[in-house]
Amino acid sequence: KAQRLEEVEVTVNLKRQSLKEGIKQIQQQSAFKFAYVAAQLSPYDDITLPAERRSVLQTLNLLLQNTALTWSLNANTIVITEKRAADPALSARVITVSGKVTDEKGNGLPNVTITIKNGGGGAITDVNGHFTIRVPDEKTIVIFSMIGYTSVEIAAGSATPLNIILKEETRSLNNVIVVGYGTQKKRNVTAAIASVPMAEMRDMPISNVATGMQGKIPGVIVQQTGGAPGATPAIKVRGFGSISAGTNPLIVVDGNIVDASVFSNFSSNDIQSIDVLKDASSTAIYGSKGSNGVLIVTTKRGKSGKTRFNADVYTGFQDVSKKIDVLNSQQFAVFSKEASNNAYLDNVPGANISDPNSARPNSYLRYRYPRGDLFEWFNFDDPQKVAAMPTYDYQDMIFRKGMINNYQVTASGGNDNAQYLVTGGYLKQDGIIEKSALDRYSIRANVDINVTERFKLGANINPVYKIQNDVNSDGHWAGNGIINAALSAVPMTPVWNADHSAYTSQAALATPYGWPGITNPVANITENPNELITTNLLTNVYASYQFLKDFSYRATGNFNVGSTRRNAYKTSRMPLNQILPPTQAVGEASSDQTTSWLFNQTLNYTKAAGPHNIDVLLGMEAYKYQYQRSQAIGTSYANDVVPTLNAAGLPSTVSSFRTANTSTSYFGRATYNYKEKYIANVSLRADGSSIFGSKNRWGVFPAGSVGWVLTEEPFMKNIPVISNAKLRVSYGLAGNNQYTDNYPYLATLEADNYSFNNSLVNGLGAASLGNDELGWEKSKQFDAGIDIGFFHERIGIGIDYYKRNTNDLLLAVNVPTITGFSTAVKNIGAIENKGWEFSLATRNLTGAFTWNTNATLSFNRNTVVALGPTGDPIRSNSGVNETNITMIGKPIGNIYGYKQIGIFQNQADLDKFPHDLTSRPGDVKYEDVNKDGKITADDRTIIGNSQPDFIYGLTNTFRYKNFDLMVAIQGQQGGQILNLSRRFFENVEGSANQLTTVLNRWQSEDKPGNGIIPRANQRTTGNNNAISSRWVEDATYLRIQNVSIGYQLPEKILQHIRLQQARIYLSAQNLYTFTDYLNYNPEVSNYEGALTSGVDYGRYPLARTFVVGVNIGF
Amino acid sequence: CKKSFLEQLPPSTATTENFYKTADDFKNALNANYGSLQSGGVFGNAYIYGDIPSDNNFPVPSGSVTDQDEFDRFYIKTTNPFVANRWNDSYKAISRSNTILSRIAPIAMSDSLKKRFTAEAQFLRALVYFNLVRSFGDVPLVVTEITNANQAYEYTRDPAASVYAQIEADLKAAEAALPVSYTGGDIGRATSGAAKALLGKVLLTQHKYPDAAAKLKEVISSGTYAILDKYADVFDVSKKNNKESVFDVQYKSGGVKEGNPLPNSFAPENSGDAVVKFGGDGNNQPTPDMENAYEAGDTRKSFSMATSYVNASGATVNYYFVKKYFDVPATKNDNGNNFPVIRYADVVLMYAEALNEIGYQGGGEAFTYLNIIRKRAGLAEKTAANLPDQASFRLAIENERRVELAFEGHRWYDLVRTGRAIPVLNSKKAQIRLVADLTSDNLVIPVPQSQIDINKDKIKQNKGY
User: Fold this and answer.
1) Portion of chain A with pLDDT greater than 90, in percent
2) What is the model's pLDDT at position B1?
3) Are B19 and A749 inside 8 Å of each other by CB?
4) Rounded to an integer, what distance in angstroms lies between the CA atom of residue A31 and that of residue A19?
5) Is the confidence at residue A756, as pLDDT, over 70?
6) What is the pTM of this model?
């Protein structure tokens, strides 16, 4: 029974008030009864006890310290009596212990509760964390505890002074979780909400905070699709919730609705918490915008206390995490010659491979190969010349070791009237591709003012200035894409011409052989400076007022403005597709501006009446988003001296563009709990959005959830192993209005100009079909979850099952083009996402050597339920036509194409199987899926899907004395990628460099290769390079995400150098990825979007980062 | 107040709500209808549909992308993007005509203008349907604006004969209402002569020889058109819309996105500024067979094509390319050449063809018109002695059209019209690398797979695909 006294928590708040008042407060909040003699209590009428959630035991000890009273428990009644006359022997041994309690950073912690383990007194720390307590002897165990921190038990005499460090406890049940328009205690949460363990991100050298979330939250997929400095990953909560209306979660930073790119403006140090709202009961309060989940980011704010300074600095380098194996010059010569000869033999009757180039037709067909006819050294027939050819490693030329440096200084503090935090940061990151770089300057300042006890004001201002050097890393080499050019350029192509006066390209070698003029990977970097300057300002002000005891009102105004400026210039020294320099210089100057404002006001009623706890919220919100862009492109530069457009003779493109959307909302939420045992939560939101047609502009989104804390039931008390168990069920409706277009319901016109006899005339033609019934995409979600803690929360397990059905999908449906349009936007179709999420947090060792583990595991299954007016599949284009298909009964966005079943070995083989009209032995054998005896477009079938079987993350942290170690891994099992880049470097064409996989090509019946790669052929036959299973690869990977080792400087040294705390660490990010994937990064998706996911067409690779960092508090 | 807050209109896009109301709106709509002629599937890439399949041209060699090769060698996949372009771009153009024709009646504007706008839209619709029916055979005949996509699922492929009937009806209406010529900023719009010439071609294609001859004769007798003295002048960018131009797709250079891409498209790959500024893509390369189709002394040959060029470093590069369209642009693909849809030379040769089909007449009127064209090319006139019968005259016309109208997108349709496609191409099977003998299935291209996939019940594929 005494245990209950420790477990039941109450909040007692006394300011020079009486002991009786304190006891009354305990009575109100618990089921305990009290028995006492009123006269014995009446002298104690000037007690101060700051409000804090404490156990009844702790509270009693605090209330009765310095009194002549003591307590005892009789059944459910706490009896307060006068102490017996002091035992002289005991009192003789009373000693005084004092010291300081700090957090891990060395900041003094006020209001820490200190109790003597076996009863008999207590104390709390002052504003600087100092305390004094009287104990019977040195061996007395005292307990230091505070909400949100792990308690410490220690013998009173173990040190003088007794300095205690409390570690932040990340998974305490008493932690507060941020929910829409408020907070809830984790204990009372009935929705599927998870908090990102920020502590696991503190050492990660990442320029985009979102990348650190990979694997940390069950049900949240974070995909690093590109590795450019600051690149924002793709974030999806619980699968693809939409087909074309956007699958990004709503991101709310301190109340501002922002874009995911905001994560590139923060360091993880800036962020107090990131809470992920996953189920309908938590997201429906965001109504229209919530159906893809909500990420609520709360930045750090000041706390009262003396001013604290913190400095975080790290420095290190990055390099490319992988290189791709391509042919060297000698391998290429053999391969290319074979490709030319095969094409020649195929196409010219009576041809012989010994025929010299001069005997081979010179026009149109690619029969010729280098035989010393253009350059003496360039001769594939002469083994000596071949051996002497240089191999240029273009990957070495485009990649580099890039420095990364980060500096951040924070000052925070305040008093009871005002608290503040000011931080300034500078990040400089050199990308792993030459010239790519990011410089980021950021300031964040916030202040909270208690004007009166009831009236509070606050403001937050966060300007960020970024200078980014972009490089054209992705895309086709013909568009000067760096990576594809580096991997495709034939390995003997020099970067410079003979006297180093100009860049050359493959075009210089290619002409007589009909090869494409692959651009120069190095010039693609150096001759294309492209600077993007981003200025971003997030601001937020609020005022809150408490009235009539239980009511509070809060008004919040947010204003964001973001602008970018791009200055780009492609010099005349740049070799272009098929063209050697001097080429046409192109300059660009463009800028855009995004502004959004959001205003909301909420009225809150909170009442705790005995066992009943009620919380009601009513609110309204208005939001406006505006975007505008202007762009000018100029050509006809006289020279490369001045890159700005004033030097361009001809502005070839000048354009500007504006768009906007607005929404208005009304919402309410009520939560109720009975003794924190039975919990219910209902919410309703009505949203109007300018994005929809007049007939369906408003949507209503209700949701509800219930929770049952089993461990509060008497029958569970007999199972001491289980320290906490809660069942949760929720159901609700949320909406989605993230459509790519802000005016999808309107029939719009497009300009299609013309000229008559050299005079320009304006033309306007219909561009889309209107639909004034266009309305909300709605998703219904059911969620059931259980949270269980064992052995006093040493083991915590969370399991969730969800099923989300999204209906009325906003879809640009393919329509017959005889309408004049290829698509029309409609609310049509339905998809279902269901899945399981598991999280596990264990404190494996808690002694001097501590070892904690956090693990997550998530499964999501996605099925298309209905589509379009006819239910016909949607075929989608990515880098080329029709790479993906979405059909009923299957997951969204399957990879679509022919299924390769081998290579035709000989004529007999060809005669046996259906094949393309042009197929020959050595060409690809496709499956005749529809068994009609022909290989046609109808034989294309599903050949993969990018969605994984499951994703997982595992973080182990270890601590011994002053050392700590963290190892985080993360990965995905299953899922496929269409490695479309292999169209460039595995097309077996002989005019561009290839992956070394082509060494296993079919050469003859006797040298059949691996049975997958077809023969080399300059003129592809047999439809070999159609989208097929040949280029579909397994996306499974396991990544060592981060390993970091830290060392906390001991107190003695700190005192010597006058620091409050200091920690140095080494951290390796993205250390190694285990995968069979042939391209750089198995997470890549160039065409991010539900319909075309999982297509890799060349993307900036991920970096591996090593840094050393230091973290100082003073 | 709240209501207007949620009513946002796009600042940068016009909407149909307030459009199609005034004469000016219809003028703009009609301009866009002309603008759609420039799209790839209509006339922008005419060479893909009219030249590449013939014996005149090879596509640019592209190892792994066979889209053009499929047209050249007749193994066209139903998913070929040029097939989809032909269908989709054509119907987009047709829908623009239909929108104008469906909405213009109640609009307040001068009668003459309304008549002219209507006739122009009818002409454009007929022109595009003529492309469609020749490419695909039977096609859905859509002649009213479709405002709800659901209506579109009801259309099936109408017989080619119905499509031709609609084309004839549109052109007859157009020729009656269109002016003979325009002035100033209207030059380049459809004229009655253009409608008549096109109608003549449509009739000829249907082998309605007397009707065709009569209609073409009207064009000739009108005196509006003439054969220029110099072949080169016909294509001279500074002499656009000359007497020989009956109907052109108009282009304009000068950085207003109205430039013609063909000069850059046809110049050799890797040629830099040696042939035309800003390099080439090597499309539509003349075949050696085409080179040999020119008689000795034909002045048109060196103007229309080349077999080599001298590169920047002074070396001669052997390369067959079309040089008929040439203009030095200030930026790539911004050339000023028009693309000729109907030239007077075409009218003259069609007239000769129709006359000969009606009945061979040694040294008759057909000879006169054939020789007008030969004379300008610096070639000897043909006489009854050279061409003693109808069959030999046919071949003479066939070859004259081949070289006179080379690389203007005519050859393949000429061969199909005269029933010569199969014998001519099969006789050169190895030379032009056919994958198999041509059959009648190859005379039309497949319906785009996407349009069958979307409406499987109503839209069926052509035989052989």
Assistant:
1) 53
2) 45
3) yes
4) 18
5) yes
6) 0.82
| Closest CA relative to residue A513, chosen from A387, A330, A343, A328 | A343
A6 against A986, higher pLDDT: A986
Q: Between A792 and A1063, name the one with better pLDDT.
A: A1063
The secondary structure of residue A987, as a DSSP letter, is: S
Structure tokens that stand for A668 in this block: 């309410």
- From the list B73, B319, B330, the residue facing A363 with the nearest CB is B319
A9 neighbors A53 (Cβ within 8 angstroms)? yes
Provide the CATH topology of domain A176-302. Answer: Ferric Hydroxamate Uptake Protein; Chain A, domain 1 (2.170.130)
Q: From residue A143, how far is each of A13, A118, A124, A315, A455 by CA, in Å?
A: 21, 10, 11, 40, 36
Burial B430-446 (b: 16+ CB within 10 A, else e): eebbbbeebeeebbbbb
Q: Which domains does chain B have, with CATH numbers?
A: 19-178+435-465 (1.25.40.390), 262-337 (no CATH)
| Helix B111-136 / helix B81-103 crossing angle, nearest 10 deg | 160
In chain A, which residues fall in CATH 2.170.130.10? 176-302
Question: In which residue are the tokens 């198995």 written?
Answer: A1082
Structure confidence at residue A36 (pLDDT): 82
8 Å CB contact of B12 and A816:
no
Q: Does B272 touch chain A (CB under 8 A)?
A: yes
φ, ψ dihedrals at A234, nearest 5°: -85, 135
Contact B384, B367 (CB under 8 A): yes
SS3 content of chain B, % helix, strand, coil (to 5): 50, 5, 45
Residue A834: phi and psi, rounded to 5, are -140, 155
Question: What would the CATH number be for the domain defined by A2-165?
Answer: 2.60.40.1120
* Interchain proximity A757–B250, CB inside 8 Å: yes
Beta-carbon neighbour count of residue A953 at 10 Å?
25
Q: Is B125 on the interface with A (CB under 8 A)?
A: no
Identify which has the larger pLDDT, B273 or A782. A782
Q: Is B314 on the interface with A (CB under 8 A)?
A: no
Residues of chain A with CATH 2.60.40.1120: 2-165
b/e code B175-207 from CB counts within 10 Å (16+ = b): bebbeeebeeeebbbbbbbbbbbbbbbbbbbbe
Are A987 and A484 contacting, i.e. CB atoms less than 8 angstroms apart? Answer: no
Tokens of B234: 């016909």
> Which amino acid is located at A150 in the chain?
T
Residue among A1046, A824, A1021 at smallest CA distance from A935? A1021
Structure tokens at A244: 């074309």
Phi, psi torsion values for B51, nearest 5 degrees: -105, -50
Span A652-673, pLDDT tens digits: 788 999 999 999 999 999 999 9
CB contact under 8 A, B453 and A657: no
B3 pLDDT more than 60 = no
Quote the pLDDT of residue A148.
65
d(CA A543, CA A553) in angstroms, rounded, equals 8
Residue A89 has pLDDT above 50, yes or no: no
Nearest-angstrom CA–CA distance, B146 and A769: 9
Distance from CA of B348 to the nearest CA of A (A): 24
Quick check: B108 contacting A, CB < 8 Å? no
Task: Give me the DSSP letters along A647-666.
Answer: GEEEEEEEEEEEEEEEEEEE
**CB contact set of B376 (below 8 Å; sequence gap of 6+):** B227, B228, B229, B230, B231
A959 pairs with which residues across the strands? A850, A964
Say if residue A176's pLDDT is above 80.
no
Least confident segment among A336-345, A815-824, A870-879, A910-919: A870-879
Q: What is the pLDDT of residues A473-496, one digit of tens each?
A: 988 898 999 999 999 999 999 999
C-beta separation of B328 from B276 below 8 A: yes
